[in-house]
Design goal:
The chain is mostly beta strands and about 500 residues long. Helix content is about 10%, strand content about 35%.
């Protein structure tokens, strides 16, 4: 009896140490009547997973020791593109898309809230005003995250827009504004911006969606599509929309492919955009004032097949960061340009740490990357991980946060920091359907404790609870939801 009791004690400690629950989340990680899931180092390491009804709500990555929480409940859910803000200023809400429209995750109550029903696009959240802006049908709307009150910003099927290049007035169909990039919201949340193709022309059909309604970011034939679109030289322009009045202004009319429109997080009149196309054929990154003045190229290619892209602002608006390769697929850098001085910054990225997208923490002290798939520009040899990067002495030190060996990179993870910098949110299909997840930046102390405990070799039952790199068995245990009082809640509402 003493031996059995000792074995059970070890088993229960290991189970709870390797699988902590976030308070307020009913995390049925262990097999039970409603759900049966195996969470293991083997699964995290990319080996074949046993089928499960749905992904676990929480687990500790067996390869990294970092805690991962699933935020979404509906298959097909996706967090926003990496430079599209989905957070409120204090980090209590996160907006993301679902098959039904838009939902909001409340970090304080750990609850999901349906926000907007129906197909939407161009989604972005105003941090201060706590509104989500989006296209729906042929109009632009704003919905308050707290009250759900919704207002139509643009009314009617057409608007009379002021052309800042010619000083003339032109009639534009609202549907045309959806034909390019957008929406972006400026720092004082008085204007939206985007790009559009005059006449609303599109170069071809969009790729199909999967069974869960998710459209792939990377798909067969995308490279050929980009070549065709660049060669088409369709007339485009940038535009702004006054959030209060719905007034539309257009500027920077050209036949360049204008894409990835982003506002500076601190300068209400500064807009960044890109010349889209095959990256080795374009000088991609540009800024401009919303009155049409101050057009500035941020980076000029210096060699054959050099590429730069997936640009984003630092949180303080001082620096524009981007993926740089000199040349493509050979030398990898996280590069930056300081806007005030033009100073160039470069951090060397090893091939196995290159990422489709990078992002920066709110305090500017850390970077994050989402790795790359087997067909990425860095393959073979790239890693499929969520990486945390720490600048030190002119280089970056990488730490692995989440093993994405089972993730299909046709859906790009698009990593973002929560406003308090303590969690990184990403989208993934590592368990099949797309969902929204968050990984804790700090390592799990419970996972470290579990790795330090050696199971008694005489306890056969304890072996069923040890999840390692080579073998893990299903286990069953009754769990009780922990109260908020048992944990200190940080600003994002997830426990520290």
């Amino acid at each position: 009896m003493h031996l059995i009791a000792r074995c059970l004690a070890v088993a229960i400690f290991l189970a709870t140490a390797s699988s902590p629950q976030a308070p307020g989340i009913n995390a049925k990680i262990f097999a039970g009547a409603e759900q049966s899931v195996t969470v293991s180092g083997r699964a995290a390491a990319g080996h074949q997973k046993e089928p499960a009804a749905e992904p676990p709500l929480e687990w500790v990555d067996g390869a990294t020791g970092h805690r991962v929480v699933r935020l979404s409940r509906e298959p097909g859910s996706q967090s926003l593109y990496f430079h599209q803000n989905g957070y409120t200023e204090n980090g209590d809400r996160l907006v993301f898309s679902t098959r039904e429209g838009l939902s909001c995750y409340n970090f304080k109550t750990r609850s999901m809230e349906s926000l907007v029903q129906g197909r939407v696009s161009g989604v972005i959240v105003g941090r201060r005003t706590r509104q989500v802006f989006y296209f729906k049908g042929n109009s632009v709307f704003a919905t308050d995250l707290d009250t759900r009150a919704t207002r139509e910003i643009t009314r009617g099927e057409t608007v009379q827009a002021a052309n800042l290049d010619t000083h003339a007035t032109q009639e534009i169909k609202i549907a045309e504004l959806r034909s390019g990039s957008g929406l972006a919201v400026n720092a004082d949340e008085t204007q939206l911006a985007g790009s559009y193709t005059e006449g609303g022309q599109r170069p071809g059909p969009q790729p199909p969606v999967d069974a869960a309604g998710v459209r792939a970011d990377a798909y067969p034939g995308k490279g050929e599509m980009m070549e065709r679109r660049l060669a088409a030289r369709l007339p485009m322009a940038l535009y702004t929309i006054n959030i209060k009045t719905g007034e539309v202004k257009t500027f920077n009319h050209s036949t360049d492919w204008l894409n990835h429109v982003q506002f500076s997080p601190v300068d209400p009149g500064l807009l960044m955009f890109c010349h889209e196309g095959p990256w080795h054929k374009v000088d991609r990154i540009w800024t401009i004032q919303t009155d049409g003045t101050g057009l500035r190229k941020i980076h000029t290619r210096t060699m054959e097949m050099e590429i730069a892209g997936h640009e984003f602002f630092s949180a303080d608006g001082r620096t524009i960061w981007f993926d740089l390769q000199t040349p493509k697929g050979k030398e990898f850098w996280l590069a930056g340009v300081v806007l005030a001085t033009g100073e160039k910054i470069r951090y060397k990225i090893p091939r196995d740490q290159w990422s489709v997208h990078f992002n920066v923490s709110p305090d500017g002290k850390l970077f994050v990357g989402d790795g790359g798939g087997p067909h990425s520009v860095a393959a073979p040899g790239n890693g499929q991980w969520i990486y945390l990067f720490t600048p030190k002495n002119g280089s970056l030190t990488a730490e692995k946060l989440v093993n994405l060996a089972n993730h299909d990179y046709r859906l790009e993870p698009n990593v973002t920091f929560t406003p308090d910098g303590k969690w990184i949110v990403f989208r993934s299909n590592m368990y099949g359907p797309a969902h929204v997840y968050a990984v804790e930046v700090a390592g799990s102390t419970k996972a470290q404790a579990a790795s330090a405990v050696k199971p008694d070799p005489d306890c056969v039952i304890a072996r069923q609870w040890v999840c390692g790199e080579t073998q893990c068995s299903k286990y069953r245990v009754a769990t009780q939801q922990q109260s908020h009082a048992q944990h200190g809640l940080n600003n994002s509402g997830l426990d520290s």
